[in-house]
Write a sequence for this structure.
């Protein structure tokens, strides 16, 4: 793997961006969307592989349409449905076709619950007859059409229902669902957040059976948040949240025979977590993944839906933990493709239907970062990887025997592909540190570019009027590791002068902050500071991703210990550079990064003079079971791992200036973390600044909130660094 990265700082025609010093970027411009990139609407390939659909919305008329386009020409073919043609139906915000594309599910009046979960009013439209059916008068969750589009399953009030679209009859499948006790067919809070799915039921391939999960939350402790709102009295949001070491929901797998309504339990040997269920192509067989509480023993089971017999197909173990992914793909004969880190790097493997390894498809000291799918007709596996360096992404194909690998899109930067259903075409999205997203159409087999679709030339032209300073990519040797880094210097940089340094990081397990991609809002804010004469740097330390299994898992059992050591050491090493003012060094981060900023300021009090922590964890004892125990085991097993790196256990170490920020409505990293840190600092008689944003969740946004937040942060940096 390449150890050093040098980015060409200027593209032809881009020099004017850094030469024309007309305006400085402002926080208000950033968070009002002034520098937003123009993207492609989410497209969905149609079964024929030649066409795709896009959801378009006209804000002036409040009309949404599902429009069909041709891959080859990119021209619109037809409008499949328009909301203004549906009597009594407001505009829809998402859609889903039945497998045969004869019907479409339309979502309206959608409201968020947590990060991924929503409630909404849903309709099913028969595309040919234009018959429209409202699924339920109440708001429901996660409706899913049967493969032939004749039925729809959904969840309401924690119970599973099935509606027959032909007769209009609805059958309530489960009746024991109850808030904060029993959930059928959708996940609880911690599964949604950490295993990243909400719909916990699935139709088999011929629509005769539904597999679903049941969560018994009875013994899970409750967490409550005050919601201040606008009324005379605040309300409370009370939900089940298992903090590290506490009881999780008891999860069980059930099978519904749709015709008879019979429900049968499946004995999986008392699994602790069931993070994935997926039907095979054979309608009588279901795959189920289970993992133990330590999350270091992942098992893939085959369930015979008729006999309920369970067979172990594959087992993955690790001394630390095994990640859960969505990369499982069943081929026509139910052989399957799977990704694994078992050789030290994330790669693609092929197994037969009995779970016997047939071949390791990809190999090398680089990571497969996305598995796109398998074209069985051409015997091509499509994937994205770091073969062009850990901060870059390329798109590739290879045959199932690991031979005849082809580069499809590998321009230096980040390439990401969206394939047609039959893998005839893909749309590539490319960006790098000096190029905003560019969208192009390619032939999948060869990678040949067929045409340009959209670029962001207008944004580049707009940015010519602003000060914009390039990220310089390199590596820095810290604690025996060459760590990926970028540094941003002021436009009029003079190596003979001294500049204050602000470091940014996140550092969570498997994450990456140093990447060759276009700007995020965070990057624009860094430009605000650089324009004021600050140097901004970011270093991805131990525990971050895409450098192999061992590099990522070196922080196991000691979250933020080694990561903090790396940030402190990196700051010290950067301060040795003649143009860095060693007496003016700051650090900031959000969430895991907020924890890191706090720890760095305290444990590195001879290095850092200032820190900003937004929505920080301050004790892993307060965070959820699945995430925390994956990396730390339980507090009972690893008390020192939890407490030795919890900053409210050593508030007396604070010497520098500290700004602590949180949203009171954060259901993820609870404001309890910040309140405990505040109390510790008060009792240690340490002065600091803090801000609480009422009712704001982990993202701390809404209205002018982000503008206020980042102006506060900007002022703090300018006053204290």
């Amino acid at each position: 793997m390449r150890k050093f990265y040098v980015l060409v700082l200027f593209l032809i025609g881009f020099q004017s961006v850094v030469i024309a010093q007309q305006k400085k970027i402002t926080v208000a411009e950033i968070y009002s969307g002034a520098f937003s990139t123009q993207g492609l609407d989410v497209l969905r390939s149609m079964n024929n592989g030649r066409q795709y659909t896009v959801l378009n919305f006209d804000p002036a008329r409040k009309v949404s349409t599902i429009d069909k386009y041709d891959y080859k020409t990119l021209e619109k073919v037809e409008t499949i449905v328009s909301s203004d043609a549906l009597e009594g139906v407001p505009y829809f915000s998402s859609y889903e076709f039945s497998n045969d594309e004869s019907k479409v599910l339309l979502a309206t009046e959608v409201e968020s619950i947590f990060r991924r979960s929503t409630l909404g009013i849903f309709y099913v439209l028969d595309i040919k007859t234009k018959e429209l059916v409202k699924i339920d008068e109440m708001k429901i969750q996660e409706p899913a059409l049967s493969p032939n589009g004749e039925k729809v399953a959904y969840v309401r009030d924690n119970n599973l229902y099935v509606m027959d679209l032909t007769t209009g009859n609805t059958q309530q499948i489960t009746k024991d669902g109850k808030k904060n006790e029993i959930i059928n067919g959708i996940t609880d809070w911690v599964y949604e957040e950490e295993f990243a799915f909400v719909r916990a039921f699935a139709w088999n391939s011929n629509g005769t059976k539904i597999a679903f999960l049941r969560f018994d939350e009875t013994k899970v402790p409750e967490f409550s948040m005050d919601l201040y709102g606008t009324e005379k009295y605040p309300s409370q949001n009370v939900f089940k949240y298992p903090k590290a070491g506490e009881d999780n929901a008891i999860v069980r797998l059930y099978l519904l025979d749709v015709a008879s309504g019979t429900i049968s339990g499946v004995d999986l040997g008392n699994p602790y977590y069931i993070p994935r269920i997926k039907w095979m192509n054979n309608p009588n067989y279901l795959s189920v993944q289970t993992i133990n509480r330590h999350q270091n023993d992942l098992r893939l089971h085959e369930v015979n839906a008729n006999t309920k017999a369970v067979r172990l197909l594959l087992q993955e173990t690790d001394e630390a933990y095994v990640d859960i992914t969505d990369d499982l793909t069943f081929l026509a004969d139910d052989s399957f493709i799977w990704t694994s880190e078992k050789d030290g790097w994330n790669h693609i493997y092929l197994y037969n239907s009995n779970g016997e390894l047939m071949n390791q498809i990809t190999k090398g000291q680089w990571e497969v970062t996305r598995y796109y799918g398998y074209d069985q007709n051409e015997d091509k596996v499509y994937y994205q990887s770091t073969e062009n360096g850990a901060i870059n992404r390329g798109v590739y194909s290879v045959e199932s025997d690991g031979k005849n690998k082809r580069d499809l899109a590998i321009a230096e930067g980040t390439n990401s592909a969206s394939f047609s259903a039959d893998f005839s075409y893909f749309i590539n999205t490319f960006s790098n540190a000096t190029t905003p997203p560019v969208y192009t159409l390619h032939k999948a087999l060869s990678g040949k570019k067929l045409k340009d679709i959209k670029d962001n030339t207008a944004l580049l032209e707009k940015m010519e009027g602003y000060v914009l300073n390039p990220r310089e990519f390199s590596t820095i040797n810290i604690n025996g590791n060459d760590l990926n880094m970028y540094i941003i210097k002021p436009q009029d940089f003079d190596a003979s002068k001294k500049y204050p340094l602000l470091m940014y990081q996140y550092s969570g397990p498997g994450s990456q902050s140093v990447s060759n991609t276009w700007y995020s809002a965070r990057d624009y804010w860094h430009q605000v500071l650089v324009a004021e004469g600050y140097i901004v740097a970011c270093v991805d330390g131990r525990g971050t991703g895409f450098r192999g299994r061992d590099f990522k898992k070196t922080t196991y059992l000691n979250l933020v210990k080694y990561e903090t050591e790396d940030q402190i050491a990196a700051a010290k090493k950067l301060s040795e550079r003649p143009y860095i003012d060693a007496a003016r060094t700051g650090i900031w981060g959000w969430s895991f990064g907020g924890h890191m900023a706090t720890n760095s300021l305290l444990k590195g009090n001879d290095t850092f003079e200032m820190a900003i922590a937004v929505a920080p964890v301050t004790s892993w004892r307060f965070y959820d079971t699945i995430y925390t125990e994956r990396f730390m085991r339980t507090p009972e097993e690893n008390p020192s791992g939890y407490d030795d790196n919890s900053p409210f256990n050593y508030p007396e170490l604070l010497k520098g200036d500290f700004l602590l920020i949180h949203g009171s409505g954060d259901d993820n990293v609870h404001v309890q973390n910040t309140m405990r840190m505040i109390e510790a600092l008060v009792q240690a008689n340490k002065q600091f600044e803090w801000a609480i944003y009422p009712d704001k969740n982990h993202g701390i946004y809404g209205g002018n909130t982000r503008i206020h937040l980042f102006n506060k942060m900007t002022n703090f940096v300018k006053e204290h660094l």
